[in-house]
Specification:
This protein is about 50% helix and about 15% strand. The N terminus is likely disordered.
Length: about 220
């Protein structure tokens, strides 16, 4: 089973979307990138979960608005299945409620279908390398949603340790936990503990929120 770390060409991708023409378009994009390979397609959430469990992909592209299980419900089922896969929402919805629900549900990224094909492909490549991917115009929306919470106003208020600042800085660059572990020469378990602690200090719920927060509030130093 592959892990989602930067690997030799062949990051396995599963597409879950109820629009056949869009699935065909994504498949054509993936075929243009030798470092990506399509291992499955599903037209609904139930089938998507079954195929994901059978193929164990590195990257799952998931639509939000689907008949039967919607994207958020499918995301929950995929996370419950304990798959070692990065899950990126690829949808038409740019509504704040949908974006926040997806990211807090464990999505590793959120891309909009109205992006140019070349931009979608570049983001898929980045996601395949373990990077966080969010459509550019959504970052302000996410930041606005975070202002509704009671997180610290300034980086100094958070009381992060030097190591937590390093981890937060890499989160801001879009690194996955596995890439952070590799970069800092730490175990994956240690990185997860640091992420858990910094999320608690920042009063945030997900690593994606922390990444957006960090971009808007650069830590005072890496220690």
């Amino acid at each position: 089973m592959t892990t989602g770390l930067p690997v030799a060409p062949g990051t396995a991708v599963l597409v879950i979307d109820d629009h056949p023409l869009f699935r065909k378009g994504v498949a054509d994009l993936i075929a243009m990138a030798p470092e990506l390979r399509l291992v499955g397609e599903a037209g609904d959430g139930e089938s998507g979960v079954r195929i994901a469990s059978a193929t164990r992909p590195d990257l799952i592209l998931l639509d939000l608005n689907m008949k039967g299980l919607n994207g958020i419900e499918t995301l929950e089922r995929l996370r419950e299945a304990d798959l070692d896969a990065r899950i990126v929402m690829l949808t038409v919805s740019d509504g704040e409620e949908d974006v926040v629900a997806a990211l807090r549900g464990g999505a590793d990224g959120y891309l909009l279908k109205d992006m140019e094909p070349e931009e979608i492909l570049e983001n898929l490549r980045a996601a395949g390398r373990g990077r966080l991917v969010i459509s550019h115009r959504l970052t302000e929306l996410i930041a606005r949603a975070l202002r509704h919470d009671s997180g610290p106003v300034r980086p100094d208020d958070a009381g992060l340790t030097p190591r937590e600042r390093q981890v937060l800085g890499l989160l801001a660059e879009g690194f996955s936990n596995k890439l952070i572990a590799r970069e800092l020469e730490l175990s994956l378990g240690t990185v997860k503990v640091h992420v858990k602690h910094l999320l608690k200090k920042l009063k945030l719920k997900t690593r994606v929120e922390a990444a957006v927060w960090a971009v808007r509030h650069p830590p005072p130093g890496n220690g």
